[in-house]
Amino acid sequence: MVHPVTAAYPTLKDYLAEKVVPIAHQLDQESALLFETFWALGRQGLLIPKIPTALGGLGLDTQAFWQFQSAVARHSGALAFLQTQHQSAASLLLSSENEALRQAYLPAMATGKRRVGVGFSQLRRQPAPLTAQPVPGGYQLRGEVPWVTGAGLFEEFIGAAVLESGEAVFGLLPLVSSADDRGQMTVHEPMAIAAMASTNTVKIRIEDWFLADDQMVAHRPAGWIAQRDRHYPLSPLGLIFGCTQAGIDVLVRSLSRRQIDHDITCQLTAQLDQLKTAAAAALTLGEAAYSQKIALRGQAIALMNRCAQAAVIATSGAANALGHPAQRVYGESLVFSVSGQTTGGAIASLDCLLS
Ligand SMILES: Cc1cc2nc3c(=O)[nH]c(=O)nc-3n(C[C@H](O)[C@H](O)[C@H](O)COP(=O)(O)OP(=O)(O)OC[C@H]3O[C@@H](n4cnc5c(N)ncnc54)[C@H](O)[C@@H]3O)c2cc1C
């Protein structure tokens, strides 16, 4: 079947097949190569596909964006993950009332002329790791941002800090260690992580940083992230489906190489298709369907892990080699199993492990 998104954007299809597939393993390991590949997507104007075309994006709706993400993640989880952070920053800017920032950033982000990450998952933590205090002309920020992906590529990130009232302020912050009259920002070395280390995920320490009003992206009410998590529990599915397909691809090749005839491929593919259909239907449902959606996300994570594990088993001992695609997909499934995880998401995934 022709993939709807890659059919609509043949440059993406060709680029993934010709340029990404041969270097997928290095993209997981080598930041410079990964960043060059990100730039190449930018040269094709493919970096913020969910943003309206008038502002430089492709105007994809959620389902089409899943297909886009899935197509990229099928070939390189690291590239898809990096692009997703940039897209998240663009979506925050799109909803911003700061018109000057929207105009200055969004079209430039489509091509990679401006590169922006995000650091707001800490809003899920209690007490807030990063706090803000109103001061004349802006806010004073203090604390820690535990996760920001893309150091060395993204020049800035949109960080979120919590006010005493529980409301959150989002603003543009430099993704590089800085000490000047705005305050002090310390970007730690990239974390030593088991998979996708090339994406350069860092922790940031912020000491009395002045976030000026003109760098403000958004202001959100107390409890915003919990509401968002309830509204959009399916948002990581594009990455999860892509990684699942990547596992099936490795499985098919390994079974064929060893001349093992087994119907597991058909069964896993059928399960993936069923979940995609169920997810598309669930997208039309409102927040009342939260339990159904979070259970679906748990099932999708469980299927992704089964496919990654099947790829390892079918590959046999060679799957233990760091350079084998089965190893890469197994590692990517580790990251995608917990991306944007909430307590409800963890419980849904754990439930699936028992069923
Ligand atoms: C490789 C990698 C890259 C990442 N990159 C980014 C990035 O670029 N930007 C970004 O914003 N995030 C990023 N993340 C964060 C990612 O989305 C988080 O994994 C996810 O949000 C879960 O956060 P956590 O593991 O820090 O868990 P926690 O912060 O511990 O939270 C998990 C859940 O537990 C709940 N919880 C935590 N503490 C308590 C408590 N004491 N009592 C009750 N409930 C509690 C939280 O409310 C939440 O629902 C990245 C993660 C990884 C692994």
Describe this structure in words.
A 5-stranded antiparallel β-sheet has the order 2-3-8-7-6, with no helix packed on it. With 355 residues, it is an alpha+beta fold. It folds into 3 domains: 4-111, Butyryl-Coa Dehydrogenase, subunit A, domain 1; 116-222, Beta Barrel (Butyryl-CoA Dehydrogenase, subunit A, domain 2), CATH 2.40.110; 232-354, Butyryl-CoA Dehydrogenase, subunit A, domain 3 (Up-down Bundle). The protein starts with a helix and ends with a helix. The protein has helices spanning 4-8, 10-20, 24-29, 31-43, 62-75, 77-94, 99-111, 224-231, 237-257, 264-283, 290-315, 325-338, 343-354; strands spanning 116-119, 130-135, 138-149, 156-162, 168-174, 178-180, 183-187, 201-212, 216-220. The longest helix is centred in the C-terminal third of the chain and has 26 residues, at 290-315. The mean pLDDT is 95. It is built from 13 helices and 9 strands. The chain is globular, with a radius of gyration of 20 Å. Flavin-adenine dinucleotide is lined by residues 85, 117-121, 124-126, 146-149, 193, 201, 335, 338-343.
Summarize the structure.
By secondary structure, the protein is an alpha+beta fold. The protein has helices at 4-8, 10-20, 24-29, 31-43, 62-75, 77-94, 99-111, 224-231, 237-257, 264-283, 290-315, 325-338, 343-354, and strands at 116-119, 130-135, 138-149, 156-162, 168-174, 178-180, 183-187, 201-212, 216-220.
